[in-house]
Amino acid sequence: MNALLPVRRSRAAGPARGHRAPVRTCTALVAALTLGLAGCSGTPWSSDDKGAEKASCGLVVDGSGSGTSDDTGVDVKKKLQETLLPFLDEHHCSSLAYAPVTASSWNSSCRHSPVDLDPEPRTSTEDRDVLRQRARNSAAAASIEMLNCAREQNGSDVLGALGRIAQTLRETRDDTGGDMVVLAVSDFEQTDPEFRISKEPLTTKAERTKAVDKLLTGRKLPALKGMDLYTVGYGKNPTRKPSTYEGFDQFWTEILTTRAKAHVHHDDE
């Protein structure tokens, strides 16, 4: 596929952030999002409302083989259909940027420009709510396009995808100074040409520190400091043994919370 050109636990590792809430499922989204017809019932949030907080939002979609169905891991497309639009509403997203999880996420040719979810009317006859709904439709359709492109490249460089989305948000954030919020739909099974988390011993703190340092050697720590990171599918790979989950979780906690200093919220499915 050609590049996309500008075309469980519920746990918060960090202080609560006001109105923040876990990602919720909105009914009737599966068919709607597949068709690119975004929308829960009701009107999207209005930035005209006094006190409405705008957030620059980012989406990470996992194109690895474990993301094709619930039988093999996390059905990423299904999870997008269930969670993306409620996420945009709950966090008052004024824009949505994208990053794929592929074998080399930083360098992946799968790209899409951030979508403006709160566009200004160009004429006095344009209805702002209609423009917002169209923007949501475009954002939803772009998420599936990004996923399809990522699946062509396979691989699972989760760290690189998080770094890429964090950098994109910092580069494209508007002047309002609103929050930066990321939704990552992935099982977080880092499996790239240089590092396979499933091959690393993670039982002891010393083993985890060694594995974290190995992964970060020659790579950038994701610039997630102060951002809210919401995950869907975290640790859901069915091939992972139950006895290894704690080490897996503490491995990512060391990277995302301790070192990158993000506010991490895992889904409670």
If you had to describe this structure to a student in words, what would you say it looks like?
The protein is an alpha/beta fold and 269 residues long. It is built from six helices and nine strands. The chain has helices at residues 29-34, 76-90, 128-153, 158-172, 205-216, 245-259, and strands spanning 12-13, 55-62, 93-101, 115-116, 179-185, 191-192, 195-196, 228-232, 263-266. The strands form two sheets. The chain has a seven-stranded mixed β-sheet with strand order 1-9-8-5-2-3-4, with helices on both faces. A two-stranded antiparallel ribbon has the order 6-7. Helix 2 runs antiparallel to helix 3 (128-153). The chain starts with 11 loop residues before the first strand and ends with a strand. The model is unreliable at 1-43 (pLDDT under 50).
Euclidean distance between termini CA atoms: 32 Å
Radius of gyration: 18 Å
Instruction: Give the overall shape, derived from the CA principal axes.
Output: globular
Mean pLDDT metric? 82
Structural descriptors:
269 residues, alpha/beta, seven-stranded mixed β-sheet, 6 helices, 33% helix, globular, disordered N terminus
Per-chain topology:
Layout: E1 12-13, H1 29-34, E2 55-62, H2 76-90, E3 93-101, E4 115-116, H3 128-153, H4 158-172, E5 179-185, E6 191-192, E7 195-196, H5 205-216, E8 228-232, H6 245-259, E9 263-266
Parallel strand pairs: 2-3, 2-5, 5-8, 8-9
Antiparallel strand pairs: 1-9, 3-4, 6-7
Helix pairs in contact: 2-3, 5-6
In short:
Helices cover 33% and strands 15% of the residues. It has 269 residues and is α/β, with parallel strands linked by helices.
